[in-house]
Each structure stands twice: as C-alpha cells, then as structure tokens.
Design a protein that fits this description.
alpha+beta; binds flavin-adenine dinucleotide; eight-stranded mixed beta sheet; nine-stranded mixed beta sheet; FAD/NAD(P)-binding domain
Length: 415
Amino acid sequence: MPDNQTDNHFDLIIIGGGLAGASLACALKHASLKIAVVEAYPLNTDSQPSYDDRTVALSYGSRCIFDSMGLWPLLEPYAEAIETIHISDRGHFGVTRLTKQQEEVEALGYVLENRNIGQQLYADLETAEDISLFCPAVLSTLKQDAKRVSVEVSVGAQAQTLTASLLVAADGNNSKVMKLMAIGSSQKDYRQVALITNITPGKKHDNVAYERFTDTGPLAFLPMKENRCSVVWTLTAQQAEYLYALDETDFLQQLQQRFGYRLGQFKKVGVRQLYPLFLQSATQMVHGRVAILGNAAHSVHPVAGQGFNLALRDIALLSELIVDNSRAGKDIGAPSLLQNYASLREDDIKRVYRFTDALVTTFSNNIKAVAHLRSLSLLLVDVLPDLKHRLAIQSMGLNTGSGHYMTRLNRGMPL
Ligand SMILES: Cc1cc2nc3c(=O)[nH]c(=O)nc-3n(C[C@H](O)[C@H](O)[C@H](O)COP(=O)(O)OP(=O)(O)OC[C@H]3O[C@@H](n4cnc5c(N)ncnc54)[C@H](O)[C@@H]3O)c2cc1C
C-alpha cells in the first residue's frame, strides 16, 4: 500500500490541542480532511495549560468567527457580554467609555472561562469522524521533504510515526516544532507579571469591563457569569509574589484599595495564578510544509485581551486557504499557499503588536509628563468620535488588516 493510504497518513497534523489548535480542528471539521491533533496534556485536568482558570475576552469579531463555524450556540451559554468598556487612569482625570450603543453592536465582546471553551471545543471534535486525537502525546521528531511532513510522537511509552501534507504548529510559546525546525523568535520582556483571579463584587457589574491604568501597570476587571469579575492585575514580579502570598482578606483589601469602590465592597476571591508577561514573535510564520499560529507565532501582553482573538484570525485565514485548495484538488501543504497565509497575516499581527505595546509602555509608568499626556489622550478619545470608534474597532477585533482582506468566517459565512 502506498504510504499516503496508511492509517497514520493524514492531510493535516496539528501539534497542540490548546485554544488555537482545537479551534482550527473545529473550523475544518466539515472539510472532508483527515486530521490528527496531538496534545501533550490530558483534557479536563487541572494541569492542562491552555484550559486553566483564566478567562478570555472574546472580541465581537471572534464571536462572528465562532458563529460562522457553527460553534457559537455551544459557547454562548458560558459567555457574559461586555456592553461598556470603561478606561481610566488611576489618580488622573482622563476617562473614556466605549459602549455597544455607540458602536451599534449587540456587545463589544464576551468573557468566557478558558476551561469552558476547551470543554465545548472538544465536545464538538468528538462528533467529527475524520479527526483523530492523540492525547496525551508529545512530539519528539519532525522531518519534511518536498512531498510531506513526518513526525514521531510518543503516546505513553509507544512511539508512532504520523505523516501529512501539512503540519500546523499550535504548541504555544515554547514551541517544540519551532525548536526542531530551528525557527527563532524575538522577545521583549515587560518585566511584569499578570496576577489572575476572579472576585465577587458587592454591586452588580452591569456588563461593564474596567481597564484601569495604574503606575505599576494595567488592572482589568471583566464581567463574568454569576456576577463575578475576572481580574487581570499587572505588577512587578516582587509585588505579584507578595500579593499572591497574602491571605484572602488581606488580598481583597489591597485590590479594593487599588480599584476603589465603583463595584462596591469585594466579597469573595477565587484561585490566584501568576503569568510572566512578554511580547514574543516568531521570525517566520511558515517553513516548507509547516505553518505556525496562535501563541507559537505571537504572544502579546493581555492588556487589551488580543492574544486568542489574533489566533482566531490566523485560523480563519488558514482554514479558508486550506479548504479552497482542497476543493480545487490542489496540495494543501504547498509552500505557495503557506506563503500566502504568512503575507496576508502580517499587517494584522503587526498592528496588534503596536497597539498592545503602546498601551503597556505609555500606561505603565509614573513620569509626570507621560501621565498628563495619557490623561489628555483618554480625554481626546472621549471627545473625538472618530478616534473613539477606531479604538472600539480595534478592541472588537474588526480591524483585521491583512490588506483589508476579510475572511469568509469573519464575514459570517461558512467555509
Ligand atoms: C494572563 C493572560 C490573560 C489573557 N487574556 C486574554 C484575553 O482576554 N483575550 C485573548 O484573546 N487572549 C488572552 N490571552 C491570550 C491567550 O491565553 C492565548 O492567546 C491562548 O492561550 C493561545 O492559545 P494557543 O493554543 O496558541 O497556546 P497555548 O494556550 O499555550 O496552548 C498550547 C497547547 O499545546 C500543547 N503542547 C505544547 N507543546 C506540545 C508538544 N510538544 N506536543 C504536543 N502538545 C504540545 C499544550 O499542552 C497546550 O495545550 C491571555 C493570556 C494570558 C497569559
């Protein structure tokens, strides 16, 4: 039997079944492609790094992508709408509000727990006959030639060889695929740590997301189901460790002092977790028959909740190119297809780098002149409707760049 027809030959191998890898597999569920998803950690366990206690603020554009994929009805019961975004600078006068009414949308975005997204993505994948899940399984070797990619994966104590026309690296910011192919990345260390937790406030959150810029860094409160708020508190490593070690009462007191009483007296706090923050960018998005997406390609500061939203736009484009080539009977791993993917994604990714990096660097210091300037810029944003609309468009994930190329999934159409 020729190699291409053995059980271990696939059209596509996805390394990493986290938020990005599993979403790509779901997008391609009806594409009549044989797909392997290789994921290192068992699902539904506390050790799974992609589906942990964090939340994701999904932009309105990402909701459109999930809707076009037919997944939104599964996710919606877990999604809390963001109807207003309130941006302020602690101790200064500038404040701006973005509202769903001004932008004439149902919501500016939605907050979901990573764990719930993971459960729903895998529930959807379970119904797909052409998708094989190798889990827990890790990638050990990778080779490619002009016709195919070949990988060895360890499934328990057993090694298996899988081959495919195309391999997608969705294995996060410590990507083994990139290491095996000697693809480098540039990194900017923000020397900041995100302390993540959930709290129950005394007052109703009324679907308002708060982004407060403080002298140590941004502090975000995102509305969640059951009137909880997801807190992303950016701090120096020393401050984060100190706050992490406090008991619940002392921690809530410190948080209250930092945020104020707009949401009433904080009552309860959930598990606290720390994440070091950096900007990481792969030096190339494709290599031969390999494409890179999600955190492996770009990790950004969570200040404006852009990371997974950016990954979903990678997925919307790559899945469209794959499906179009497959329907035309063409090679889905052709280097020309992948070059097209890399060049069409470039503008959007660079725009998000600039947007998040500017927010972090402008709003994370206490130099007086900078503080006045940012107060002024917040005021300007509030009074200039066009500027405000542009900020809202970026936050809603509708400014996708790509030479204004809007994918079908972005436009609400099926693949
Ligand atoms: C504090 C914080 C808050 C955030 N908030 C937001 C937000 O509000 N909105 C937003 O859009 N984004 C947000 N993000 C970003 C978001 O979490 C990431 O964009 C998202 O997790 C990227 O998913 P991924 O699948 O690319 O990578 P990961 O989540 O890192 O998943 C990689 C997967 O690959 C698997 N894997 C790794 N190596 C191997 C291997 N060798 N073999 C097999 N499998 C492997 C891992 O087990 C994992 O499941 C936030 C990030 C942080 C740190």
